[in-house]
Fold this sequence. Notes:
- The complex is a heterodimer of chains A (129) and B (238).
- In chain A, 13% of the residues are buried.
- Chain A has four helices and no strands.
- Chain A has one domain.
- Helices cover 83% and strands 0% of the residues of chain A.
- In chain A, α1 packs antiparallel against α2.
- Chain A is elongated and about 80 Å long.
- Chain B is an alpha/beta fold.
- Chain B has one domain (2-233): Alpha-Beta Complex (Spore Coat Polysaccharide Biosynthesis Protein SpsA, Chain A).
- Chain B has helices at residues 2-5, 21-31, 48-54, 67-81, 101-110, 132-149, 165-173, 180-190, 217-233, and strands spanning 8-14, 36-41, 58-61, 86-89, 115-119, 161-163, 195-199.
- The longest helix of chain B is centred in the middle third of the chain and has 18 residues, at 132-149.
- The model of chain B has no long low-confidence stretch (mean pLDDT 86).
- The A-B interface holds A 98, 101-102, 104-106, 108-109 and B 58-64, 66, 70, 73-74, 77-78, 81, 177.
Amino acid sequence: MLIKIQIIIGTLSVILFVITFEMIRKGRLREEYSILWLFTGVATLVFSLWPQFFLSQFITRITGLYYLSAVVMIAFFFLLLIVLHFSVVISELTDRNKELAQRHALLELEFNEFQKRYPPPDAVSPSGH
Amino acid sequence: MDRLTKRRLAIVPAYNEERSVTKVVEEIKHSLPQVETLVVNDGSTDLTSEKAKASGAIVLDLPFNLGIGGAMQAGYKYAYEKGYNIAIQVDGDGQHDPKEIPKLLEALEEKQVDLAIGSRFIGDMAEYKTSAMRMLGISILSKVISFIVGQKVTDPTSGFRAANRKAIQLFASNYPQDYPEPEALIFLSKSGLKMLEVPVKMNQRYAGESSITKVRSIYYMVKILLAIFVDCFKRKSV
């Protein structure tokens, strides 16, 4: 029974790791956002390779969780960290987005005023020649 | 010369206010000819921008809707960068009577405060009509804000305000986003600036709805009290 779970979780974590790595390589995922994903992959892989050492002996004893639930718990914890990290990133981006929108509007107003005062030469006489 | 030393700007945030913006701009021009008017068009999808331009206001067109906090801050940034000494916030929905602006300006100049707030609830103007639900909300908010800033504030949600250069600078660099009116008072008091309430008369709106509807008022109260609570623990800005 244990070996089945080991194989499934091991395979899933290898797939997760490879996908994350490929996305970084192709530039679709920035390194700063991917570190937690790579950690998640490595951590679940390590737990699936040495379940006796990490879980049966140590974590199971202090938490009372069985192997599968322990692995799920660990993965869940990493997912929480990732989601929290994303919230921080989104907050930063929202703030920058606001600053950019305000700056854009101020510059556009400035530009329009400037153009009104100093019209570009070809726009001076639209009705002429 | 006086124009150079005492430049004043009325900031009018407007989101889909095509029915009232012209009237607001014209009333400001009529009652205070020396005040320039900036309409901050917060990504309106109607003719707000065109109507405001036609009525002679300076129009700042935000590329998309930022909400009242982002729009007000954009106005304060303009006031700061263009060197205005005094900025007056006037709602684009016509709730604020421009004829009352001199009372705010007088408080700024004579009482030496940094922000003058037009209040519906002091003096003989106290008969302003609003729903019982909103009255309760405003009174809870008023007690909380008064406690935090250490002075009595009767109308913390009033957006009818006048700011001097110091307050303009503060708000240009740091302005709350979600519920800007009450939170801005906390920012102000944390930065050591002074505020004063002035009795003013407010109209019923010409058009449009309050951003706070009855159904959402409880939700609004919970969120705003939470935001205020968080503000108390924020590090001092600037």
